[in-house]
Amino acid sequence: MPEQALVAGRPAFVVAQAPPAALGPDVVVPPDAVGPAPEPGAPAPRPATPPPASTPAAPGASPSPTPTPTPLPYIENVPFSTLWPKYFDAVKRIQAGDPAGVKELYFSLSSEDVKWFEANYKHLADLLSSGTLTGTPEQLKLFVLQAFLRNMPKSAEKEPKVSQALHKPYAVARVTDHSTGSPVDYETLLIQEGGRWVISHFFFARDFIWMPQLAHFKKLNGIPNSPDETVYLTQGLQPFVEWARGQFLNCGYEREGPRGSSSTPTSGPRR
Fold first, then answer.
1. At what angle do helices 83-95 and 137-148 cross, to 10 degrees?
2. Domain interval for residue 92
């Protein structure tokens, strides 16, 4: 496969949509957003916005439709600032087609997300290329992560704002990306792991963009679906929306009106 195809490949039927706006309070719930999902080739419905729970359970303490890593005991005063330089350096390498960026990005991700990506990158490469892409594992991972970056921040002029659950190893970060000219806000879960903060669930693109398409792709190709994919195929996005909003509430993270293409200002403890 020519290297250019690995660097600038385009998905066959993936609809790139920015997850920051997906859970916004201004979303109108389409009828099929809470039922069985559409077949591949149709734009995925934007997630619904359920009413917030009055007393949300602590993250990881209640059943969730999607795997969530179990972090180590909370360590006080672990800085968030050390995460972002490593993340953005990895992003630059991946954009430039450098395979070293893959392992560098892994260092900024939760171990559970790395495990999920390793289990699915071949399926994702087939999905994105309609089964036409061949190459080494490193080339396939690079190709897939370049597609992932369409729904992840590529740069930030200011330190991302973080709202953290009090004395808990969980947080939500908002990263404002100016790489396209106008500011776009991205949200992600953060957890403590190995004495540092790491990104969890790929800025929600894992749950609201890639997992749904994987679910259909595997079903159509006779590949067993994972538990979270099965939940999606039978119940739609609603359980995932409720789970994500529960994480926001537990971290004291409040979502307000739009700015630019999407906006999610935070409140609560910040560093």
1. 110
2. 80-203
